[in-house]
Amino acid sequence: MSHFSFLPTNLSLPAAFALIPLYIIARIVYRLTWHPLATIPGPKFAAATTLYRAYYDVVCDGQWSEHLHALHAQYGTASLNTPNIQQLLKVLSILGTVVRVGPNELHFSDPNAHADIYGTGSTFPKDQKMYRCFGSSKSVFGQTDFHHAQKHRAALGPLFSRRATLKLEQQLQRHVDNLISRLLTYETTRKAADLHLALRSVTLDIVTSYCFGSCFNAVDYAGFSHPVAVSMDATLHLCWVFKHIPILRTLTDTCPEWLGLALMPATKGYYDQANQLGAQIDEILDNPQILANSEHDTMYHYFIEHQGQKHGLPGVKREETQQMTKKEKAKMRLWLLHEGLNLRFAGSETVGNACTMAAFYLLRDEVVKKKLVDELVRAWPDVDESLGYEELEKLPYLTAVIKEALRLSWGTVTPMPRVVGPTGGVVAGVAVPPGTTIAMGNTVLHRNPDVFPDPLHFSPERWLQPDSAATLDRYLVAFSKGPRACIGINLAWCELYLILGNLFRKLELTDDGHSSLKDLEFREYFIPLYRGHHLHAYVEKTRGQ
Ligand code: HEM
């Protein structure tokens, strides 16, 4: 929102240049004094310029979400300098729960703010300034406009319904069985397996075969280090550079690959994935009949089967793709590419992180691990039989372990920004002016000691209290909430139960002794990128049960 515009339009070029510093100074003065957010506590530098945020995003290598904790602590006790009693009361009522973190941006810490920003009934659009940096503006995730996104979700939603997930459970189970067999090969070598990469690989295989009908077999790759599984982290840090210098995003999207690679070698992972997925899309658009041979419905079936058109999107019938003009095909290709790249990413890193976090804490706490294993053995006495998702989800301790792992793996770690509409909004009792960007980070809510006492302690027991479903579940926001919540939530829950249930029923895992809490420090690039040693474990087959 620009509240300040004073430059005359008929200036000569040198005069205009001479006025630029004046314009910048005037804008800063305005932001610090007359701007509608001027009375909200927060660092003056952040109120003056977005360079403040860029510093924590880019220079500090993804440290914004950590810094937010410090800001709320600091501005919860800040001394006030307000000119009148109304303003004083206003500031006192919001003190500590909201901080002005940018010229036009507020961050909230009041637990109730989450529902106001993201919950049922919220129609705030996503903030384009951030979401465009991911380069997937045509995907469900990248659609910032609320109503457009709802159409898109309606077209893709059935692929991720509970029914659709249950239908494909056996396929998921095959990937999990493969993971268990691969991990068992480490029993003979007596080497510790990289669980972080193993779990990332199985979730990558699951999401790719679920959404695209084929996968990389990343689990079979030596050391679980398939290039795609590894390259996702290698590319992600560029997103904040793209956010603060959007022209670089445009250049990456439009320039030839060789030039993009020469200018930014770190984009190789992105190009590799885009090329691989692009080849599959081309094959389907050229010969859509191959969809008929697919073992099950995929993302392509949901778009290239009239579903898209039904919901007002550029969907086509299978037989119609051959009659599409070159331009229409290119449009369709880009759309499918954005969707595919996003689903591959959204569906593998997140589930992989949650599983790794569960394993990390279970391997450090014998008491918690034993409770889980005892429950699994009771429910699943014969390990050679299989136990399905619908049986596993009835197990209270396993469910509590998963919820606690979701809480401490955060889901996304970057506060997801939304923009208040032209009539303004109210968040946690604070009136927010039109056009303001608002957000509340999952780490801030999941670490709130009033909601989750001793928040950094992994305690499945907190989810087993008689009233926890009523009191705690609404504050577990790893999947976000409301109309823009995670569309893959059913698939994710199914994966979490199958992977963790099988892992801790069939294998005896022992930490290799090199992991510590320090390894949980992360760089924040929408999702957490852990800095430390990957979790490794010695693997044995479960015995005597
Ligand atoms: C533990 C696993 C997962 C977690 C914690 C998680 C978390 C989230 C969160 C927090 C959002 C909201 C993002 C935002 O508002 O910008 C989201 C959106 C989304 N997720 Fe997930 N996710 C998980 C698994 C999956 C899976 C398995 C898929 C599909 C393969 C998926 C696909 C999506 C999509 C397409 C969106 C965009 C929805 C929209 O913007 O309307 N996610 N997810």
UniProtKB/TrEMBL annotation:
Transmembrane regions: 12-30
Entry-linked PROSITE patterns: CYTOCHROME_P450
Recorded metabolic or biological pathway in which this protein acts: Secondary metabolite biosynthesis
Ligand binding (heme): 486
Pfam families assigned to the protein according to its UniProt record, in alphabetical order: p450
Cofactor field: heme
Keywords: Heme, Iron, Membrane, Metal-binding, Monooxygenase, Oxidoreductase, Transmembrane, Transmembrane helix
InterPro entries: Cyt_P450, Cyt_P450_CS, Cyt_P450_E_grp-I, Cyt_P450_sf, Cytochrome_P450_monoxygenase
Molecular functions per Gene Ontology: heme binding; iron ion binding; monooxygenase activity; oxidoreductase activity, acting on paired donors, with incorporation or reduction of molecular oxygen
Domain of life: Eukaryota
Recorded family membership: Belongs to the cytochrome P450 family.
UniProt-recorded name of the protein: Uncharacterized protein
Species assigned in the record: Psilocybe cyanescens
Biological classification of the source: Eukaryota, Fungi, Dikarya, Basidiomycota, Agaricomycotina
